[in-house]
Amino acid sequence: MRYLTELHVLIAGGGPAGLAAAIEAGKSGLNVLVVDEGIEPGGQLVKQTHKFFGNENFYASVRGFDIAKELLKEISNMKNVEILTESTVIGIYDKGVPVLHRENDEVELLKPERIILATGASEKFLQFENNDLPGVYGAGAVQTLMNQYGILPGENILMIGSGNIGLIVSYQLEQAGANVKAIVEAADRIGGYEVHARKAKRLGIPMLLKHTIKKALGGNKVEGAVITEVDENWQMIAGKEKEFVVDTICIAAGLTPSVELVSQAGGNIRYIPELGGYVPERDNDMRTTASNVFVAGDVSGIEEATTAMIEGKIAGLNAAKDLSRKIDEKKLGNLKSQIENFRSGPTSQKVRQGLQKLGFTLKSESFTKNSDDNIEKYEGKKRPVIECPEPIPCNPCETSCPVGAITVGESINSIPTINYEKCTGCGICVSKCPGLAIFMIQELLDSEKAIIGIPYEFLPLPQKDESVYVLSRDGEILETGKITQVTNFGNKTPVVYVKINRGYIKTARHIKPVSHSKNDYVCRCEEITVEDVEKAIDEGYTDFEELRRYLRIAMGPCGGRTCRLNTLKILSKKTGIPVEKLDPGNFRPPSVPTTFKAISEGSEKNE
Amino acid sequence: MKRLTKHPVLTFKRGKKIKFYFEGKELSAYEGETVAVALHANGIKNLRKTPKKERDQGFFCAIGKCSSCLMEVDGIPNVRTCITRVKEGMSVRRQRGRGEILD
Predict the structure, then answer these.
(1) CATH for B18-96?
(2) Pairs of CB atoms within 8 A across A/B
(3) What is the pLDDT of residues A166-186, one digit of tens each?
(4) I want to staple B88 with a disulfide (CB 3.0 to 4.6 A). Which of A115, A132, A133, B18 is the partner?
């Protein structure tokens, strides 16, 4: 089962922090064992489908599951590092560390010289009536089902919580084809990054602020949910309830560190709400008050995977140093200053407050606001518009630009600035931006039209010349536009260009396919659907009389009263010819259903 | 619930199709899936009756932390089915109560 005989470093948890720690400790030549509960290593990275913020040293603009692959690949080349999955550290004693191997249901006692606890976190569980019904899932559980195993958690989802996880998972649910009915947030503003909120908003997901969940409805599984408004003291307001028909309630109320093993190892823990709950006391080498035990990642305070990896590396290097291995001190110093930079921006304010309570002094860096880019001055040029409203520690726009037109600068929290003189309009930044916050625009000066380029991570991917709905920032349909170009950059974020009315250049920010159900009828008499009409138009029947002969539209008993105008409108939308310029076709008798008897008897009398 | 076949970002490589049993009824799964995930894919969210109040419960966290997915697997109770691989011929039952100590 295990090939390592002499064990130096035991790492509990094979997520981003544990794997990063294993890599650093392993590089020093130590024998390292990573023990992970899951059936595959990688922790929560394996279900993260979004591109990460950060800089290129820490996988910026790479999707989480790809980061896991890269870390595991690096480890697979190290003979002295072993990963055990389906195994759990079940306690820490003076005599040793018992590890449960689930596969053969055996406990093995290990005696490592150093322990790195990278046990992560668990989801916070909200209190409301019937919150234990099957179908009330943590946001992480929804991601596991959907992104790790490819199983849709439900059809209709209510998301509770608008932090980054709630926003990201809502977007991912829509990507997978589920319907997010609303994102419910008790505070009066959205908790997560504005760029993540915008991604969800332009899909048309309603954001219900100052609301909270009151109860889950259903017998032995979720069939609905009741939410209600809350006042400024977070108390539910009676009579302000709203009911949703949903099969899944997803709770994204945050995470709390899994500190059980830290405490068992003799490490002090303290309650620091800003860091998610009880957290270990530790120094900036990630050493706990139990001198042989280090921590890294969410267990040391809820943050995100980039800081988890940096902490892991710091812990790994220090474990190696403890065991008299030669380490790169400069690298250790760099890692410490990198993590401080990451935490220096306004989005890390809460983390800084928490860490200050633990005794750290942290810098809070100023950032530079977007200077005036003179976007209007370059009217007619194909160019990106950067809608990066918050100082997030992130710079792939800068590093991906092939001509150096985008600058974030020294402080990674700064908002990018673009030099439109240098910009060639290639669109790479649109595809690379982890926040999907960059769009291309180009005014077509010889017409009232414009082209916008949108990062589009949905299926089906539209084709050139296809008509699509153009959506506003709030997911409202503005108009129908035609796709002019689809550019693929090989990172699963294609940039889709669509021709729009120039008036929408500042408001149009998403598209969706023009699609109809199989039972979307235009003609009641002859049972002809929107899809039938559109298909016929695509086949080349672009005149009303042609459509009539081909589909029998307007040939039924109502004589076209119900369907004629609707058909003409579809024809107009598809061909771009206004209805008033289309031929409405003939109006043939009889104008109402008439029996043969009436006609034949009448004609006899009239003769 | 639906197994996704197409996704804009992910590709799902599923293992061999296998059979397992839930409450004696034959269901299908793919190798590499966990028991709880395979049950969910078959539309089964209700995994156990709680020991005291006999309430229906399913998983909450799906990563082995919350212990709400405890089921009886091949006669052994208290198995965390969200992190246990489903296997050919496995027999899974809803757990009622805390489970008996086996010989």
Answers:
(1) 3.10.20.440
(2) 119
(3) 999 999 999 999 999 999 999
(4) B18
